[in-house]
Amino acid sequence: MNEILSGAKKFSGRLSVPGDKSISHRALMFSAVARGTSVIRGLSGGRDVASTTGCLRSLGVEISAGEPDTVTVRGVGKNGLRRPVGELDAGNSGTTIRLLSGILAGQDFPTRISGDRYLCQRPMGRIIEPLERMGARISAQAGGKPPLTIDGGGLEGIRYSLPVASAQVKSCVLLAGLYARGRTTVAEKVASRDHTERLLSLFGVEVRKAGLEVSLEGGAELEAAEVRVPGDPSSAAFFAAAAAILSGGEVRIDNLCLNPTRAAFFEVLEKMGASVKRMNERSQAGEPVADLLVGSGKLTGCRVDGAILPSLIDEVPVLAVVASQAEGLTRICEASELRVKETDRLKAVHENLTRMGAVVRELPDGLEIEGPVRLKGARLESYGDHRIAMAFAVAALAAEGETLIEDAGCADISFPGFFPLLRELSGLAR
Ligand code: S3P
């Protein structure tokens, strides 16, 4: 499905966004292997999270939908999963395949897990290596790509230093650690999102943190919990960005997860000159939550690298769009992880911004953008990547003339209803 958008004269309103995708995946998986029945409210309705639901059902877990965005999960206990018939399908979801592989490595039956053509191009060596060190036997396609065949059981705890900053790898090893003998420790060089640690605690697992190290004991059991998933900051980022770059823009986004390992995009936006206010700060599901007010301002370029990157890694495409509207140079480096996301996001952003007339250079590990430039409407590709489709929908609002985004339906992967909501706030006809 293609989307056509034109420049917006306004951008304002109050909204909420779907439940956080990372927390939704974890809430489903932890509920599935917990003892007792869990209720999850505010679950993301995106296709990625539906892939996790589908895999868990194939593993014998009963998941029933109730009110909108609410599900009840009948936990089967840590060792109650059933051998699935056929292959598990993780769809487009890296979090599904990487986290679930940690759990599958602990099972005494073999499984095969695969995904769509984009997921089948993504590197899984980063989870295969530690899982094999723990004792699992895993086979993959050339280059460590899916489908994966996992022959698990008999795991031993390890101490693992993450070679790349990745919450998916950290979480995979910790989940396998729940099934291992002895203690499992993961050490990071820079902090990645810590939803696994927070949510495991909510499910009654003792998780020890010491600086950038996190450990747990094998044999720990999970107990059912009630989880209210807060709004996804990565989905909110598109609306915050549009408000920041469009003259007179202002949005209020309710009930957002503002975990410091996720919320750096809003800090950078404020540093660039947008107005950003947090209201009603509170805690929900062990996560810091607030309502956020974002308004336009005179923006200046900035430098983004180092330890802050993991906390805004999924927001880099829309940050690059914001940078095209900011005065001076924005330099984003040490971001080569973006090359192995749903698509090569550095290449995709460079290509699309160039087509819109921005001044942008692709670096081996990042992007340089010089602004401000009046963007021109263009024909763009989403590359099947939800965040590329949504980032360039925001760019389209700031452009002169019409922009066509090919295959924009992939926004549903994390944000069903994104385009109607964007149109509503910008006063554009459907
Ligand atoms: C995620 C971790 C990040 C992020 C992804 C979701 C998670 O990936 O990009 O969208 O839920 O743990 P990496 O672990 O590969 O950095």
From TrEMBL:
Q: Name one GO cellular component term.
A: cytoplasm
Which cellular compartments is it found in?
Answer: Cytoplasm
Q: Which residues form the Enolpyruvate transferase domain?
A: 7-420
A single Gene Ontology molecular function, please? 3-phosphoshikimate 1-carboxyvinyltransferase activity
What quaternary structure, including any partners, is listed in this protein's UniProt entry?
Monomer.
Family, similarity comment:
Belongs to the EPSP synthase family.
**Descriptive protein name:** 3-phosphoshikimate 1-carboxyvinyltransferase
Organism of origin is Candidatus Glassbacteria bacterium RIFCSPLOWO2_12_FULL_58_11
Gene symbol here is: aroA
